[in-house]
Amino acid sequence: MLRESHILLFSIFIAGLCSIIYELLIATTGSYFLGDSITQFSLTIGVYMATMGIGSYLSRWVSEQTLLAQFIAYELVLALVGGSCVPVLYFSYAQDLPFQFISILLTAVIGVLVGLEIPLLSRLMEKHYSLKANLSNVLSIDYFGALIATLVFPLALLPWLGVFKTSLLFGLLNLSIALTLLWYFFQQIDSRLRFYLRTALVFAFLTLLGLMLFSNHLNDKWNESVFDERIVHSQQTPYQQLIMTKNKNDIRLYLNGGLQFSSIDEYRYHESLIHPAMQRHHNVKSVLLLGGGDGLATRELLNYPQVQSITVVDLDPAVANLAKHNVYLSQLNKQSFLNDKVEILHLDAFVYLSDAQQYFDLIVIDLPDPKTISLARLYSKQFYQMVKSRLTANGIMVTQATSPFFATKAFWSIHNTIADSGFKKVIPYHVDIPSFGDWGFVIACKARCKQTTQHLPDTRFYTPELEPALMIFPADINTRDSKVSSLDKPHVLYYYLEGWKYWN
Q1: What are 218-267's pLDDT values in tens digits?
Q2: Is the pLDDT score of 81 beyond 70?
Q3: Of 58, 194, 401, 410, which residue is 20 to 30 A from 274 by alpha carbon distance?
Q4: 444 is annotated as contributing to ligand binding
Q5: In Å, how far are 304, 309, 341 from 338, measured between CA atoms?
Q6: Residues that are catalytic
């Protein structure tokens, strides 16, 4: 009897572990593909909790005569659905199926099955413990399993395995509940039900194992269906998925499916990001670059001999490592990260500025668009105030500011937020970049903000004479009444999602 109770307690622990992992996997995958992490996690948690309640309610109709067999059957279905949830979501995205609907449907099915687990396990353990001890054991062990899951998911599973393999691994782990119970209670189950359960167990195991063994091949096929060009580098990091493609002379980098640059026209972006700001300061010696892990902005900065130091703060070491060692990217950035003037720090930009003591003549912000709450804080008034506090007396800041055409309100929210942060002069401008479309930037000066007559390095696109044209905004994208974005009220996030939902 003691052994039987231990087996049931093991089942509770694994159930708690797997159930939270499935929830995290679905929400994280949704955030990867749809971008809005708040909506994805809120929807997943809400639907998951509600359907758990439905599952718990439905458990009252499970009869005592078939209690054990039905519980094993539910675990088999849960292992198969939960374990394959990420492959199913990848497939639906690649085939342009209704991703959000499928995500909610998977969450609901898993929620109902997880909701059935605890009541049924509690009933199976009734003969071992009193009601008070039974509820205490079941809930405490289940919650402890959930705690372990929330710790290992971001710290170990995501960086080592990625979401695809983690999903399959925990499906197989979930199967261990059914396998253990079927093995130990074999004689207590009706012979006809034993046959069906064994068959289903073998089917689920072979399905999940096959998906696990061929996961790399399936991922490659999925990438090929999503990206038109030949993939030359694919990597899942703790922070994002990196994909580099090559089509003739066009090298492209994608982060979580979003295009970061095309080598055909990236010079338009990076020259526009760096040179207008550099031309407004007569002697930039120290530069802080927030983001820019591809080394392309650093390439432009190194064209100015007066620059003595460039501090690059980019969160993901994998991007900088790619910029240093990948033959295509290192050629494109002219091995800028190997220059002695460049120091690379792998830190969150907000955290870095909070602790920084150094002052900079120029701060360049080349961060991803504000499409999640964690990124939106890097476009807040508090963030820009920290940027301003790290500038020298005549220091200048410049930031990419998403597209004034596709996300007009978000662009002007960034502009207005910077203007509200205490800078003396704020200058918006925009550039046509074929692979991106109309793209916006904002320069902010702590004191002086006029063009200097210093030497301009060789450029393919930017000239000082071009600037007046870049600062003209047609009437349809010149609506400047967007709200200032703050940590408490991240208006830029909602503006961004509202603008881009018609174009993604």
Answers
A1: 887 777 777 777 888 988 787 888 999 999 899 999 988 788 999 999 99
A2: yes
A3: 410
A4: no
A5: 16, 13, 9
A6: 366
HSE, side-chain direction, 13 A CA sphere, residue 68 = 20
Q: What distance in Å separates the CA atoms of residue 71 and residue 59, rounded to the nearest whole number?
A: 10
Asked if 269 and 437 count as a contact pair (C-beta separation under 8 A), the reply is no
Q: How many helices (H) and strands (E) does the chain have?
A: 19, 11
**Residue 199, number of CB atoms within 10 A of its CB:** 11
Q: Are 347 and 313 in contact (CB under 8 A)?
A: yes
Q: Which residues of 396-413 are buried (b: 16+ CB within 10 A; e: fewer)?
A: bbbbbbbbbbbbbbbbbb
Q: Does 240 count as an annotated binding residue? A: yes
CATH of 266-500, one of 3.50.50.60, 2.170.150.70, 3.90.1150.10, 3.40.50.150: 3.40.50.150
At residue 168, does pLDDT exceed 90? yes
pLDDT value at residue 128? 64
In angstroms, the CA 260 to CA 270 distance is 12
- Whether 400 has a binding-site annotation, put simply, is no
| Residue 96 marked as a ligand binder | no
Q: Cite the DSSP H helix spans in 153-214.
A: 158-184, 191-213
Query: With a threshold of 0.90, does the pTM exceed it?
Result: no
pLDDT above 90 for 392: yes
Domain span(s) for CATH 3.40.50.150 in the chain? 266-500
Name the band, by pLDDT with cuts 50, 70 and 90, for residue 277: very high
